[in-house]
């Protein structure tokens, strides 16, 4: 009989340090499952970024590299160029990717670096305790946006839609946005990750999966409220789906996803 | 070394030496006066099917080095002073993660945007670590195109031996001037043994996971890690300290200078000796580790010192520490891109020795 | 023997290639050499200047601040010669473009109509080669004999056709001293 559920081999069986209800753990599991399914455990490297996922090296059961805050795509570039037959997972939070590391992100994407960015968008700085992120929604509270994010009076700018921003770059081949707030979205997100990893291993170009992820602790919500907030507030602003798919029509990939082109 | 002598710019000779040393990945960003080095690497690394990236910034370049070095590859970046400032974050991480790599600084004058002319104003930044935290990089200071090539070539193996980034500190004059140079044999990167820290290729070996990182939030552990690293620094001091001495044995005055300034001092020394003045030259080749014991030995013999620099006076502090009050230490420097002339240094020698008698 | 030469002219006169070729030939004759072209703003148009040293022994400062010989290719560079030439040194001027000699009564001044000679040979752009011949004859620092194989290793293959003309320019320069 086939096992319906088991612990992924690529994930170390330990209790994680993530807060109850945090999305990082689910995302780790999805990555590990896809790596297991692709048989790449001993050929994978993850960059555990500055941010809550700094401890990812404790959880993924394969090699890791820990770069400086925001320099994750630059370090991933160095790793992937040296190990082109490995799966390199550039794991980043929204502060890491869209604030301090914006330049590294855009240029790695533009060069078409052949690693996959897993972009965890929790609309907040988790690790440092709930400061405003580039992806914080207008009106959303943060310790550094005590009256809510206010683009006008306080000049706090607007939330950045990273997939859409990167979609104009020719080096990007696959940009998808998923969420982990309910089983349906989790399943779709896993499919996006699989598509991106397969494209990476075929050497197609820059691939990224943005994942809307709940942060109950810093949002000051219960886990249940937080998954509802993803649905009611984040998804309307950050639409889910394949934002850009210009991957080569590949029999396996074509069966898994329908090319959507640039939206 | 059977190869014939070639006439090359310092920047290009550094590039050729790196290619021959088996550099597998180079990441750079344009800045004068080291542009010829980046261009040389673009051509020759790509010709050899190796990795060359013109990065979006020096910050990105050094972090690409970090990634490439994590895989055990010989990786390198180069820049000039303002760009080296930007790399300091990455250098600190490389040191914290004990990764080897080679960084070349073809220094220019500062602070700020400053000028593009040669300078030694980055001595403090180079020898004190430069970024945050308790660490050093090994600093090699060539005086000629030949030595720039030789030290760059050797920098890779030194860096790997100690797992410490090596900084080759040249200046705009060494980068831009042409001299004869003979290169060492080419090393095939594929022939280099795998590094014990390198990530990747788990499938072939089945070894346990490796984690390249500089984080440790447990103070007791981090302190211990730093202490272990400093024990390695102690070993570097014992094994690697290098310097050149010219006519120091009978010298009343020892000029202390590195790189371009040492060339100027050699000329001033020759002029002074012709005038019957007993002048010597002490040239540190490793700026970190600084050859303080050798200077201390000279101080004990009764000679006094003149530190000559293309700065407002930086290395002179290390000379004073090494001399430790046993002899007078004077300073002469030009900065802002000015290079002292042999005549100026000679005049300073005469002033000091005249003052004394 | 150590010959410290300071070269100056305007951008496009081939000062940089003159300096480079001078040290290349010297290197082939077994000497130590150093050539420092002042870089930066001067690179594009304007003044071109270079410090050039050839020697039988290790070369000290690569910067020439007291020149044994000075090469002046245009009128604007004359003040440089007045300043940098050592007492009793040698100044070679390109008399095609320099109408007023440097005011240095102590120095030996040699006037070479480099542009005219070069044009007579076939191309004004080899005026710098004429000057190189004159410099070698006047200083005796390097011989510049049997130049063909040397220039063959200096120039890329596609420029080899120009070598005879360059050699002719060097020879004419020697004779003009
Ligand atoms: C240069 C630098 N600046 C600031 C920090 C502090 N810092 C650590 S994590 C973090 C925010 C990370 O937020 P994000 O990337 O959104 O990841 P999350 O923690 O939310 O998963 C910051 C600012 C740092 N480590 N380095």
Report on this model:
The complex is a heterotrimer of chains A (about 260), B (about 350) and C (about 180). Chain A has helices at about 25-40, 55-60, 70-80, 95-100, 100-110, 160-165, 185-200, 215-220, 225-235, 250-255, and strands at about 45, 65, 85-95, 115-120, 170-180, 205-210, 240-245. With about 260 residues, chain A is of the alpha/beta class. Chain A has a 7-stranded mixed beta sheet, sandwiched between helices. Chain B folds into 2 domains: about 5-200 and about 225-240, 3-Layer(aba) Sandwich (Rossmann fold); about 245-355, Rossmann fold. Chain B has helices at about 10-20, 35-45, 60-70, 80-95, 125, 145-160, 170-175, 200-205, 220-240, 260-275, 290-300, 315-325, 340-355; strands spanning about 5-10, 25-30, 50-55, 75-80, 100-105, 140, 165-170, 180, 210, 245, 255, 280-285, 285-290, 305-310, 330-335. A 7-stranded mixed beta sheet of chain B has the order 3-2-4-5-7-6-13, with helices on both faces. A 5-stranded mixed beta sheet of chain B has the order 10-12-11-14-15, sandwiched between helices. In chain B, α1 (about 10-20) packs parallel to α6 (about 145-160), α3 runs parallel beside α4 (about 80-95) and α10 crosses α13 (about 340-355). Chain B is globular and about 70 Å long. Chain C has about 180 residues and is of the alpha/beta class. Chain C is built from 6 helices and 6 strands; from the N terminus they run βαβββαββαααα. In chain C, α1 crosses α5 (about 145-155) and α4 packs across α6. Chain C starts with a strand and ends with a helix. Chains A and B meet through β2, α3 and α5 of A and α3, α4 and β9 of B. β8 (about 180) of chain B pairs antiparallel with β2 (about 30-35) of chain C, so a sheet runs across the interface. The structure holds thiamine diphosphate. Thiamine diphosphate binds near residues 51, 69, 94 and 96 of chain A.
């Amino acid at each position: 009989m086939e096992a319906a559920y088991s612990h992924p081999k690529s994930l170390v069986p330990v209790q994680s340090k993530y807060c109850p209800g945090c999305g990082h753990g689910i995302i780790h599991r999805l990555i590990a499952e896809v790596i297991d399914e692709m048989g790449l455990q001993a050929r994978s490297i993850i960059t555990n970024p500055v941010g809550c996922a700094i401890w990812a090296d404790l959880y993924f059961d394969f090699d890791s590299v820990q770069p400086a805050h925001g320099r994750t795509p630059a370090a991933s570039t160095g790793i992937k160029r040296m190990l082109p037959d490995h799966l390199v997972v550039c794991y980043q939070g929204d502060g890491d990717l869209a604030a301090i590391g914006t330049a590294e992100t855009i240029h790695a994407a533009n060069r078409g670096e052949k690693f996959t960015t897993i972009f965890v968008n929790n609309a907040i700085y988790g690790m440092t305790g709930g400061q405003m992120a580039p992806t914080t929604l207008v009106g959303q509270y943060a310790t550094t946006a005590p009256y809510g994010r206010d683009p006008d009076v306080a000049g706090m700018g607007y939330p950045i839609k990273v997939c859409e921003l990167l979609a104009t770059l020719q080096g990007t081949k696959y940009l998808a946005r998923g969420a982990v707030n309910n089983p349906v979205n989790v399943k779709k997100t896993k499919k996006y990750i699989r598509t991106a990893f397969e494209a990476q291993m075929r050497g197609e170009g820059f691939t990224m999966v943005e994942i809307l992820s709940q942060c109950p602790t810093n949002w000051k919500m219960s886990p249940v409220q937080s998954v509802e907030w993803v649905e009611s507030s984040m998804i309307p602003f950050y639409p889910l789906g394949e934002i850009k798919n210009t991957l080569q029509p590949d029999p396996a990939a074509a069966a898994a996803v329908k090319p959507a082109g640039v939206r | 070394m059977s190869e014939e002598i070639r006439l090359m710019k310092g920047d290009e000779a550094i590039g050729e030496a790196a290619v021959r040393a088996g550099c597998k990945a180079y990441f750079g960003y344009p800045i004068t006066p080291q542009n010829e080095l980046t261009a040389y690497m673009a051509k020759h690394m790509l010709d050899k099917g190796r990795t060359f990236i013109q990065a979006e910034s020096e910050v990105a370049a050094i972090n690409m080095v970090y990634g490439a070095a994590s895989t055990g590859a010989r990786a390198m970046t180069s820049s000039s002073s303002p760009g080296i400032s930007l790399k300091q974050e990455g250098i600190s991480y490389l040191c914290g993660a004990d990764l080897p790599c080679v960084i070349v600084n073809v220094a220019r004058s500062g602070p700020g945007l400053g000028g593009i002319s040669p300078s030694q104003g980055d001595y403090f930044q180079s020898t004190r670590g430069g970024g945050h935290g308790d660490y050093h990089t090994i600093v090699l200071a060539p005086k000629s195109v030949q030595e720039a090539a030789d030290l760059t070539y050797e920098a890779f193996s030194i860096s790997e031996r100690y797992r410490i980034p090596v900084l080759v500190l040249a200046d705009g004059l060494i980068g831009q001037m042409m001299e004869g140079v003979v290169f060492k044999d080419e090393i095939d990167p594929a022939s280099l043994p795998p590094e014990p820290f390198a990530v990747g290729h788990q499938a072939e070996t089945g070894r346990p996971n490796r984690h390249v990182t500089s984080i440790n939030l447990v103070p007791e552990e981090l302190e211990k890690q730093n202490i272990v690293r400093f024990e390695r620094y102690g070993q570097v001091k014992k094994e690697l300290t290098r310097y050149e001495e010219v006519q120091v044995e009978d010298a009343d005055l020892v000029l202390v200078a590195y790189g371009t300034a040492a060339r100027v001092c050699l000329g001033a020394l020759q002029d002074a000796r012709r005038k019957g003045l007993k002048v010597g030259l002490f040239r540190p080749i490793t700026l970190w580790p600084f050859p303080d014991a050798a200077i201390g030995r000279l101080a004990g013999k009764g000679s006094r010192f003149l530190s000559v620099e293309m700065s407002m006076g930086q290395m002179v502090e290390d000379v004073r520490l090494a001399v430790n009050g046993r002899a007078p230490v004077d300073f002469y420097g030009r900065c802002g891109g000015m290079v002292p002339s042999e005549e100026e240094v000679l005049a300073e020698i005469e002033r000091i020795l005249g003052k004394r008698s | 023997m150590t010959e410290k030469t300071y070269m100056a002219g305007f951008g496009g006169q081939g000062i940089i290639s003159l300096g480079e070729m001078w040290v290349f030939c010297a290197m082939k004759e077994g000497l130590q050499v150093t050539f420092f072209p002042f870089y930066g703003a001067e690179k594009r148009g304007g003044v071109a200047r270079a410090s050039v040293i050839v020697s039988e022994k290790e070369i000290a400062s690569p910067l020439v601040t007291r020149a044994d010989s000075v090469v002046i290719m245009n009128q604007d560079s004359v003040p440089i010669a007045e300043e940098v030439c050592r007492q009793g040194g040698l100044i070679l001027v390109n008399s095609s473009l320099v109408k007023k000699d440097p005011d240095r009564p102590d120095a030996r001044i040699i006037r070479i109509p480099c542009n005219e000679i070069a044009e007579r040979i076939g191309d004004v752009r080899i005026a710098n080669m004429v000057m190189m011949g004159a410099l070698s004859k006047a200083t005796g620092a390097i011989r510049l004999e049997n130049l063909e194989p040397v220039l063959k290793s200096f120039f890329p293959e596609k420029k080899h056709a120009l070598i005879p003309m360059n050699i002719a320019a060097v020879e004419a320069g020697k004779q003009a001293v």
